[in-house]
Design brief:
The chain has 13 helices and 16 strands. It is of the alpha/beta class and 403 residues long.
């Protein structure tokens, strides 16, 4: 009676059952996993947000499949501030970034298709693609002192089934960003590049916001094909994703956007098809669309406060790690940090030991890290809580590592 793709997994990892019990029994003193900015003690301009959302005439609703044109023009200005020139015709409003992935699966994929996704990365990808009957293939992000795309693994994974490559830059949870050369190469394979850029406005250890894939999206690229020595011209289509959830710290106001770039003919055809897809659902609510220009204008303070918190928390972590048997990966941008712990036990066992002491963290395997001994922490935690939590975490790991 029911579809295979809607099946709810029966097997739940015992670790997550233990975490849920700890939550229910109020045994968690320090939650270092939350990435919901609305409950992290930030200073929101509540009156301005409420005014922007209230200033909508319900009788003035006009269905626009690609989204309210004034909202899209405001996003044109946002892009201009990033040094990227686009038109409102290249922008499509969505109810969320997750919905954008759903639309792009419909746009690019048929049965037996797949998307090529980086690892480590979002655990949500597998579920989003399963609901669209699209398979997930992975390529490596490798670390050798800095994160970089392992193009050998990417090219091994390429096949006629792969309909698009996904990049997450800045990446969650590695905090790494693609370079211009990496974007150029990712866009050169003759299939669409989907660039998830929702954390671009949150530099931590880099001085400026991260580069957009649209910065390298000009038309056609001459690149070496996979067969040695053969050059070919491949038309580019790049789709950049963003939304209010991260850019304005407003996950409850469901509004995202995708922006198309690349060869003009491909952009026009993608837009034409997306217009029909969006017209079938009209899922973006009118108040959010109408409020978008004002929400963008009032979001700078929250964004600045988040950036300051991320940088402060990373500095507090570095202070706690001095002379400790733990270390961390670099964080160019984003809300997470990956911490290396001694491999005297598994990641899951470390999570359990910390949970027994009231500290909640996430295991690296949850994000498909290929090595063991990694814990992922949310830099969005309130600094007073963070400082006490990381000191206690380091104390516990240090003692347990000594046996």
């Amino acid at each position: 009676m029911f579809s295979r793709r809607s099946a709810v997994p029966h097997a739940v990892d015992p670790l997550f059952l233990e975490i849920e019990r700890a939550r229910a029994e109020h045994r968690i003193t320090y939650d270092l996993t939350s990435s919901n900015p609305t409950n992290r003690g930030l200073s929101y301009p509540r009156a301005a947000i409420a005014s922007a959302l209230a200033d909508t005439d319900p009788q003035g609703y006009q269905p626009e499949p690609l989204g309210d044109v004034r909202a899209r023009r405001a996003l044109v200005e946002l892009w201009r501030g990033r040094g990227v020139e686009v038109s409102e015709e290249q922008i499509v409003l969505t109810a969320s970034t997750s919905e954008a992935y759903s639309l792009l699966c419909k746009l690019f994929c048929d049965d037996q298709s797949s998307l090529l996704v980086p690892a480590p990365s979002y655990p949500l990808f597998a579920e989003l693609l399963r609901y669209e009957n699209v398979a997930l293939e992975s390529y490596r992000l490798a670390f050798d002192g800095a994160w970089h795309v392992d193009f050998d693994s990417l090219e091994r994974a390429l096949s006629p089934r792969v309909k698009a490559i996904v990049s997450v830059s800045p990446n969650n949870p590695t905090g790494s960003c693609c370079t211009r050369d990496e974007f150029e190469r990712l866009a050169s394979y003759g299939i669409p590049l989907i660039s998830d850029e929702v954390f671009w406005a949150y530099p931590v250890e880099r001085p400026t916001p991260s580069l957009s894939a649209l910065s390298v999206s000009n038309g056609v690229a001459a690149e070496s094909s996979l067969s040695a020595g053969v050059k070919s011209e491949r038309a580019r289509l790049i789709v950049a994703l963003d939304g209010l959830s991260k850019f304005a710290g407003l996950p409850g106001i469901k509004l995202g956007w995708l922006t198309l770039g690349g060869e003009p003919g491909l952009v026009r055809e993608a837009t034409r098809r997306l217009e029909f897809l969006c017209d079938a659902y009209l899922s973006v609510n009118a108040p959010a669309q109408k409020a978008l220009p004002r929400l963008l204008a009032t979001s700078e303070g929250v964004r600045r406060e988040i950036c300051e918190r991320l940088q402060l928390n990373l500095a507090l972590l570095d202070r706690a790690l001095v002379d400790a048997p733990l270390s961390r990966y670099p964080v160019a941008a984003g809300w997470s940090v990956a911490v290396r712990v001694p491999r005297v036990c598994s990641e899951s066992e470390w999570v359990r030991r910390l949970l027994d002491n009231g500290i909640l963290v996430q295991p690296g395997w949850f994000y498909d890290f290929e090595v063991d001994g990694i814990l992922v922490l949310s830099l969005l935690t309130e600094p007073t809580i963070w400082s006490s939590a990381v000191e206690e975490l380091v104390r516990i790991v240090t003692l347990d590592s000594r046996g």
